[in-house]
Amino acid sequence: MPRLLPLLLLLLLAPVLPASAQPQEASRFFPYTLKTTRLPNGLTVVRVPFNSPGIVAYVTAVRVGSRNEVEPGRTGFAHFFEHMMFKGTKAHPEGQRESILGGFGFDDNAFTTDDITVYQVYGPTAGLQQLIALEADRFQNLTYSEPSFQTEALAVLGEYHKNAASPNLKLEESLAKTAFTRHTYQHTTLGFYEDIQAMPKAYAYSRAFFERWYTPANTTLFIVGDFDDAQVLAEVTKQYGAWSRKATTVTIPTEPAQQKARAIHVDWPQPTQPRHVLAWHAPAARADTPDAAIMAVLAEYLVGDTSPAYKELVLEKQLVESLNIYSTPHRDPYLFPIDATLQDEKHRAAVDASLRREVKALIDGKVDAARVKAIQDHVRYGMLMDQETPRDVAIDLALYAGVMGPPDALSSYLRQLGTVTPEQLTAFAKKYLVDPNLTVLTLTPKAAAAGGTK
Fold first, then answer.
1. 35-240: which CATH topology?
2. What is the pTM of this model?
3. What range(s) does the Peptidase M16 C-terminal domain occupy (predicted)?
């Protein structure tokens, strides 16, 4: 499901830092030093020296995602606005920025999640000064015509249609709408279909959206790689210092506690594999609690490659093609979903019983402490090994800071991974992995409904 896939997938930026904060000590949990400065206008600038001669990553994290879309009829705008941010300014009309960056050899992209929008540029340090000026210009002075806006709105509608050809979007929409009754997580990052269809008429609103969320206090820069720190900070201060747009907040509806189990079934009109999802409401990811780390370890413990469920359902009995838990951290309480892709519809009851049996064992305190320790080491080691380039480091820093708040949230998360105990897994399961807190999503394809899949 697109929103649940780990990207690996947002409290306004933690306490105010002094204008020139001292470098934070590198630790055995996160092996790089963060130098963090908060400019007078509220923009947070994080620099991370990285041994990458001549290469730098420049990542801008804006704490706005589909979570922030509280107004009826206006869902999907965080993702849509990611597209509009490439439309140019008066100083650099559409296409000119990309031409300049391309001349240096920069790679340029962006993505939106439920909680954050991330813009990433990666390439030679030789072009960093020009890059800073270009990024500062578009974040302060973005401009686009109504016809350009309408053209891009139709492109986003086409993106929706493309995604709708796969069952994943339907699964995601159905689960979100069933599990959430008030919170804005009830719509996907793409937004409700009828809202996407109406986007071409929302030009004026799009300008208000830009003014509301693209503010310095709602934005953090992560600059990772080979650069002169004093020069970079001076250039960032020069280019972004006049950005004075005021921060905006909205009230996000609180999701009431679920009182009894829910279920939703999807009949898919085309041949595909049957799906079975067990999704429990789970707590938000915060830098000052271990919940995100507990969920990461718990996911591997329940259905990872070393789990009894994986050995039974995937390897031995081959009832399931794949087992996943997408425990992507979220800014507000979200879901802890086990997603099973079945080999055949006739195996659904057996798979459901097996998964519930594993959860019950956990609730009963039957936890393999040695396997918990191995999983902790594996998860932490895997995250560190994935941080091979300045871009890897910058994006991971942006994602965890965007969700949890503090710029060094990734370091806190890595530290917490090493402290998860078997007792915490049991306590978490007893509190959250219970039937009144559960939503069951099932999908049956046309071929299965007609007589089973092969």
1. Cytochrome Bc1 Complex; Chain A, domain 1 (3.30.830)
2. 0.90
3. 207-376
